[in-house]
Design brief:
The chain has about 325 residues and is mostly helical. The chain contains 14 helices and 5 strands. The strands form 2 sheets. A 3-stranded antiparallel beta sheet has the order 3-4-5. A hairpin with a 6-residue loop joins strand 1 (about 30-35) and strand 2 (about 40-45). The longest helix has 19 residues, at about 285-305. The protein is flat. The two termini are about 15 Å apart.
Length: about 325
């Protein structure tokens, strides 16, 4: 779904770009660190830009919702050809992400955003962004409810309850992201999503989600909530996601999902994914994952006999 969205954005972006834009040169340089899943990479970056280059940076950030440093990096690596740079960015955004110079967000602006969407909870005698305010916030951010960026925002805010932000949570999240406007928030959420190619970051988000999805009075996560969040986080990352969700719906009898099943499924995704030959049945896996692997292996001979395409594990 996300890949398709990126393709649509890329197409729209390229349609808006004039093919006549030329690549001006620049000699003054300084060093900026590029964010990488493995280590920071030092690259050369233009210190002073011509008017034409500044216009391209502005167009690039508008089309991609990225930061200025990332825009300069991507444009530089693509010869300052705007159409080529936009296409390259959407193909592999993490390749071009640059750690932006951090300026302290304006707390007053963050409070102003909170005021726009908050409501008074009379039972608690305190102000929160509640369901209606959250709907309006996501509409203004142009984010669908099922977007992983919505979950990233909750993660950065360290939110305790779904569809709700306290004043402190909201301020914490925007300060962490470095955003004091909706435009900046969109940019930062996009960058944070690209960083999920780092498995440590992805695991942090995944582990946060269990407690976030759980009702305060419950020990485990409801099956329906677990299925929904698996779809958001693991889509495009787990080759057997559809099979797993269908298996849970068919054979779990709507039982809630305990923490160890949630946690170890992530390990299963990272180590086994679509290749069940890698599965160690003597490992400390929950029974439901053992049963799922048996279920998949039982299906495979029939699929092969029917000429079906076998599932390949996904690459990272």
């Amino acid at each position: 779904m996300q890949a398709k969205s990126n393709q649509v954005k890329r197409k729209r972006g390229c349609e808006e770009i004039s093919a006549k834009l030329e690549a001006p040169g620049s000699t003054a340089t300084s060093r900026v660190e590029l964010t990488s899943a493995s280590r920071p990479i030092k690259i050369k970056m233009s210190k002073s830009l011509s008017k034409d280059q500044k216009d391209k940076v502005k167009q690039f950030t508008s089309l991609t919702e990225s930061g200025d440093a990332t825009a300069q990096n991507c444009l530089t690596q693509n010869g300052w050809k705007l159409d080529r740079a936009v296409d390259a960015y959407y193909t592999n955004p993490s390749q071009f992400l640059v750690a932006e110079a951090k300026s302290q967000p304006d707390r007053r602006k963050i409070e102003s955003i909170f005021q726009k969407y908050k409501e008074l909870d009379r039972e608690r005698n305190a102000e929160f962004i509640l369901f209606n305010g959250m709907v309006r916030l996501l509409e203004d951010l142009r984010l669908p409810v099922e977007s992983v960026r919505v979950l990233i925002l909750a993660w950065k805010c360290e939110a305790k309850v779904q569809c709700e932000f306290s004043r402190d949570e909201f301020a914490r999240g925007l300060l962490e992201l470095g955003a004091d406007s909706l435009d900046k928030l969109n940019q930062k959420l996009q960058s944070a999503e690209a960083e999920l190619s780092n498995m440590t970051k992805l695991r942090e988000l995944y582990n946060f989600t269990y407690d976030y999805a759980k009702q305060a009075s419950q020990k485990n996560v409801d099956c329906d909530a677990a299925v929904a969040y698996w779809g958001i986080i693991l889509s495009g990352r787990f080759a057997l996601l559809d099979d797993w969700i269908q298996f849970i719906k068919d054979f779990n009898n709507n039982r809630s999902i305990p923490r160890d099943t949630w946690t170890l499924l992530f390990d299963f995704v990272m180590t086994v994914n679509g290749d069940c030959s890698k599965y160690d049945k003597d490992g400390a896996w929950p029974v439901v994952i053992d049963e799922f692997v048996e279920h998949i292996k039982a299906k495979q001979p029939k699929q092969a006999a029917d000429g079906a395409v076998t599932v390949e594990p996904m690459e990272y």
